[in-house]
Amino acid sequence: MKKMHAELFVSSRRRHSGFSLAQLCILALLLCLTGFITPVAHAAPAPASIRYDAATRVFRIDAAGTTYVLGVNEHQQLQSLYWGPRLGAGDSFPQAKAMPEAASFDLPVTTTPHEFVGWGGGLYVEPDLKITFPDGNRDLALKYVSHKIDGNKLDIVMKDISREVYVTLQYQADAETGILRRSAEIENRTDAPFTIEQAAAATWNLPRGTDYRLRYLTGRWGAEWSVQQQPIHPGKTVLESRRGTTGAQNNPWFAIDREGGNDQEAGGVWFGALGWSGSWQISVEQDQLQQVRVTGGFNSFDFGYRLQKGEHLQTPYFYGGYSSHGIGGASRLLHRFEIDSVLPHAPHPKLRPVLYNSWEATGFNVNESGQMELAEKAASIGVERFVMDDGWFGQRKDDHAGLGDWYVNPQKFPHGLKPLIDKVHSLHMDFGLWVEPEMVNPDSDLYRKHPDWVLNFTGRPRTEARNQLVLNLARPDVRAYVFNFLDKLLNENDIAFLKWDYNRNWSEPGWPAVAPEDQKKVYVDFIRNLYSILAELRAKHPSVEIESCSGGAGRVDLGILGLTDEVWTSDNTDAYDRLLIQNGFTYAYTPGVMMAWVTDSPTWVNQRTLSLEYRFLSSMQGSLGIGANLSKWTPEDFATAKKMVAQYKSIRETVQRGSLYRLITPENNSEQSVTESVSRDGSQAVTFAFLHSSREGYPFPRIYLRGLDADATYRLSTLDGKLAPDTPASASGAYWMHRGVDAQLRGDFRAAAFTLERVGGGTAEK
Ligand code: GLA
Questions:
Q1: Residues 437, 483: contact at Cβ < 8 Å?
Q2: Is 389 in the pocket of ligand 1 (CB under 6 A)?
Q3: What pLDDT, in 10s, does the model give residues 153-200?
Q4: Which atom of ligand 1 is nearest to the CA of 549?
Q5: 705 and 747: one domain?
Q6: Ligand 1, atom 2: nearest CA belongs to which residue?
Q7: CB distance 337 to ligand 1 below 6 Å
Q8: How far apart are CA 342 and CA 263, in angstroms?
Q9: Is the dihedral of CA 273, 275, 281, 283 positive or negative?
Q10: Which of 618, 635, 657 is the last residue of a domain?
Q11: Is 501 designated active site?
């Protein structure tokens, strides 16, 4: 699968090449072998196809289990016709027809389901594009001009009825998952600049209906990834960030299914996610004629992008997909898409190494001998990457000073970082380092020298958060400074990994150095520069891996995931809280990038005491890290940790790359939670079960596995905890899925985990 993402915004003019036939064949074969689309082996999906019927002016996109249809109506508008399960090859659609005038209050332009509509005429629903021209005109009516089909890509050009404003709607279909990537490129061919006040990537229209339910993700620092559900009623729900960054408060992801008849594994689900790490907006709207549409892109709040004659603006990507296998199936499609088409090195992103991070052990108090000691201990349990967190640079003693001054602190590291890095290498680990490149403390040499480098409005207060200000990365000099210090750091030190942090959101987002009409471009140019720095660093230092962290999960989206290898899930490392946090994370993002540390008990978050085994099993559901203070561990702790790290290595490919089934979710204060991951080749399944508190002697609910080959034989091994004595050592996939497994979990905060290894039989051997 061709990587669909990394070049994003580096050049707004570049087009992505499609998937090669050879790649598609390999994929098809792989899919056939692994039975990915539905868990038990089925025929491979046909490659994506895009067809245009000139007689009806209908475009039809087929990919995996999904069909998407749009057409040009009698007013030359682009109209959505269908989005859902794949239709019969011979099915056809008549020409699109705009809605009639329902009433003098609801004109056709408002009630017709547009693919992409300018604000003009009598449009009252969310527009995709709103422009103010220099003469005061704000009316925009986009009509079809031409199109181009190139393999799995479709470009449709639209133009205003009188002005030289062109918009190219871009579609790219993924043959493996059916996920469509949509974006729009807006071009000014008039002879004067104009200001774009609102720009979406796309509108997704659902079949008419009144029984829809919306799922979305909310959170805050220390409590990210809450899954929300609500019926879609007439009116509008806006999911957004106005923070200049993705934000933990809403994540740019949605899923819509029909109320009743849907669960984790059954029912139709329409879902989507934005690839944008700046202020964003997704509005979910049910109009007066019960049409549901989802429009997403740049946040229109405080937006204003002045486009000069001849310039283009590329909107973020808006990905959308459909699953017939419930919200669980929707998540699995997204996970697979992220791994195969979004992450760096897709379709073969590297497995996450087991890492150690010093933050919770030492805080800012890092030094050469202390870090070396921790490194020795970390290596003894099988850690593969040692990461030194905050505190190593400038005059950084706490969070009051030092950000911006990226030299190694000479008191803490008198000989530079080399002795520590050499030590880490001698212990057969690679070395990672924490940085927070876009920030500055007022108490720093950088700020004293360049007070004008931060976001600010002249003469207004500069609001600090965690004693820091945001550098204006949109400025070319700031971009150069940030790139250069990182490049130098990587040139001078053997660093395998950067934990890239971003510990506050914007305030006073002014850019006084440019003309007032251009200052709001900061919302776009900042993020473009962030992406281009990441892309350039990766190109110059191809073996370096990067984690996106923002005080936890404040910057996780399909944009940053194209340029970073993993993300920090939450600063909340309480292993019980993490069950809920991680559960929400996986609705949108793969466990393959979900960093999860084992930390100390009682946890700083809740003062809750949890066994080391429980903490490990909680973290082993994602990408395992250790963040505990190893100086306090007993020999028994080391022995347990060593055993569990080794166990993790034997299942990590399944956890990080496999198909995830949420068998029992921890939502709604559930007393239990159970997840299962099945490896891509179907040879291994790993199940984690957690009990909060047992009550009134009820046994733990029976665990019914999923995604196995009913006819194959699987051998069971317990990783930790107890299963019922009558559990067979091996049995068929049918047995594990239909008779199920009983875990003997009683008491408070108990956990168990087991694997099933395929030992023979089944479809593959028939
Ligand atoms: C943020 C991160 C933490 C840690 C601190 C360091 O809060 O999320 O993991 O790196 O910064 O200051």
A1: no
A2: yes
A3: 999 999 999 999 999 999 999 999 999 999 999 999 999 999 999 999
A4: 8
A5: yes
A6: 551
A7: no
A8: 27
A9: negative
A10: 657
A11: yes
